[in-house]
Design a protein that fits this description.
Elements: H1 24-36, H2 40-51, H3 61-78, H4 83-90, H5 92-96, H6 98-107, H7 112-130, H8 146-154, E1 157-159, E2 169-173, H9 183-197, H10 201-206, E3 208-214, H11 224-236, E4 241-248, H12 251-264, H13 267-270, E5 273-277, H14 280-288, H15 309-324, E6 343-346, H16 354-372, H17 375-391, E7 396-399, E8 407-409, H18 412-434, E9 454-456, H19 464-482, H20 485-501, E10 506-509, E11 515-517, H21 520-542
Parallel strand pairs: 2-3, 3-4, 4-5, 6-7, 9-10
Antiparallel strand pairs: 1-2, 7-8, 10-11
Length: 543
């Protein structure tokens, strides 16, 4: 377990300290002073956490159960006269739900006292935003009015489709996009967005990275009261802020916000916050130094406008889901049926549809070109892949996490991001394979092995081909275990084809000390055996 962060019990709005414009040097000095207030262990932890290089959290059931009991004890002492007590009276099961309470413990890094204080603030905030009748229900689209949904659609707050380099979920704030409306409408839309993001266990364990963007046409006049209200709102939600970033090109705003952060926030939290100053290009570069690639920021690099296609898809997907539950006032869009040439995306799963296999082959074909060309030309390579899939009647479809959920055609902006990610993942795999030195082979006569070949037999060879196969088997093991026999054969066949496309062969050393190339059928059978061995190994190590 990690050490606690009792400062999350701090409410930044108990008092209203004054803050004024500070220069960059003064802000740096204030941050250095805040860091100096921490002990060595705390400084190391917070800096690693900001850059996403800390150790993964491992929850131990006995410890978690003890912390949940401690949380209950703290709540018993402080709940009197609060909205939490009202909620407990309405539906005890809702407030005592283990997963719900665990979300607050994770947000506060297992500090039971801080978690209890935040739960009190959470229900007070929820009561003020949604009223007593919604206090013990999960908020859906149907609970938002038209003005709330206008904020939600605007992209003022959006969850990005790809995580940062440490696999942490990113939420971006574009306050300049907010439509005209009351603060309550904005906060209800933000509540829905952040609680949707927190449905992911990964977001709870690793925390969220939040980026507020005020550069160029996204610049907005700094509002001190609004900053305090939004900060208080953020402290009420069960969010662990792994990193907070503000981007500005106005010196006055940069100084005011930096001063507000240094004045209002506790030392541990402000050490995980950074304020960046500069143009679009400079701010995007600053974010990249913290593991947030510019490619995943929804800003068009040619005219610096917000790309909102994915957010519209995100909005429509949740609208459709709530409609299916009978809670949304808007009808569900028409379902589509996948065909064999479609590329399918399902959260948390690897699809083996013919369209997906074709996409992998196209990525292998174009990856060298994609890696060598500059950013504008990379987009052209991605578009070539999309055009080839479409030329055979293929579409790009997505399905929610349930196996029987509706299929929907994905917006092109999201498709381009997905294919670009496929190229980057493939390049990382290839770089890892190239870093392995091939072992010396015993060469006789006839067929001679090369580093890209897969050497079959009882000995463990370390050629690039063997390492590639081991990596692919490891990556696809979970999917292989959960599909039918026919689809298992498809997975094995796709690995054989990937080796072949890379110029590799499957060789075996015969008794006469001669190398011999085996057929695809034999190679496929060997790959299937590797999957079975991998499963047995995982079972034995889990005992």
């Amino acid at each position: 377990m990690y050490t606690s962060e009792s400062n999350w019990n701090y409410s930044p709005c108990r008092r209203r300290p004054s803050y004024s414009k500070q220069s960059k040097e003064e802000l740096d000095a204030m941050l250095a002073q805040s860091i100096a207030e921490l002990n060595f262990h705390e400084r190391q932890f917070e800096q690693n956490h900001l850059h996403g290089v800390g150790e993964a959290i491992v929850e131990v059931d006995d410890e978690v159960n003890g912390l949940l009991r401690e949380l209950s004890d703290h709540l018993m002492r402080i709940k009197g006269g609060t909205a939490y007590e009202t909620a407990e009276g309405l539906n005890p099961a809702f407030v005592e739900d283990r997963a719900f309470r665990l979300m607050f413990l994770r947000a506060n890094r297992y500090d039971a006292k801080a978690s209890a204080g935040q739960m009190i603030r959470f229900f007070d905030m929820k009561l003020s935003l949604f009223g007593k009748e919604k206090l013990v229900t999960d908020i859906t689209m149907g609970d938002l009015d038209e003005d709330d949904r206008a904020y939600l659609r605007s992209g003022t707050t959006m969850v990005l489709p790809f995580p940062d380099m440490s696999q942490r979920q990113i939420v971006m704030e574009f306050p300049a996009l907010r439509p005209i409306g009351a603060t309550a409408n904005e906060l209800r839309a933000k509540y829905y967005t952040y609680m949707e993001a927190l449905k992911s266990e990964n977001a709870q364990l690793k925390g969220l990275v939040i980026v507020a963007y005020f550069v160029g046409e996204f610049r907005e006049r700094f509002n001190g009261a609004g900053f305090r209200i939004n900060t208080k709102f953020a402290f009420a939600l069960p969010i662990h802020v792994a990193g907070g970033h503000g981007c500005y090109d106005d010196q006055g705003q940069y100084s005011l916000v930096g001063s507000a952060i240094m004045t209002l926030l506790p030392a541990k939290i402000k050490t995980r916050c950074r304020v960046h100053f500069g143009s679009h290009q400079e701010c995007l570069y600053h974010l990249s130094t913290f593991g947030i690639p510019s490619e995943i920021i929804p800003i068009d690099k040619t005219n610096y406008t917000v790309k909102i296609d994915y957010h519209k898809y995100w909005y429509q997907e949740r609208l459709s889901r709530d409609t299916a539950c009978g809670q949304s006032p808007v009808p569900t869009p028409m379902d589509v049926k996948p065909c064999e040439n479609d590329v399918l995306y399902v959260a948390g799963k690897t699809c083996i549809n013919d369209g997906n296999l074709r996409l992998r082959l196209l990525a292998k074909r174009y990856v060298e070109v994609y890696t060598k060309v500059r950013e504008p030309d990379k987009k052209a390579v991605v578009q070539d892949v999309i055009d080839e899939i479409r030329s055979l009647g293929g579409r790009f479809l997505s399905q929610d996490g349930s196996s029987n959920g509706p299929w929907q055609e994905m917006p092109m902006e999201l498709v381009r991001l997905k294919i670009a990610q496929t190229f980057r993942n493939l390049r990382r795999t290839q770089n890892a394979a190239q870093a392995i030195e091939p072992s010396a082979f015993r060469i006789e006569s006839g067929v001679h092995p090369c580093p890209k070949d897969v050497i079959l037999g009882k000995l463990r060879y370390s050629s690039k081909g063997n390492e590639l196969v081991r990596q692919l088997v490891s990556d696809l093991a979970a999917d292989y275990d959960n599909v039918s026999r026919g689809n298992k054969a498809k997975i094995a066949k796709s690995i054989v084809q990937e080796v072949r496309d890379g110029g590799g062969r499957f060789l075996i050393l015969q008794g006469n000390e001669q190398w011999e190339e085996v057929s695809d059928e034999v190679a496929q059978a060997k790959i299937s055996r590797l999957f079975r061995n991998n499963r047995r190994h995982r079972k034995s190590t889990s005992l």
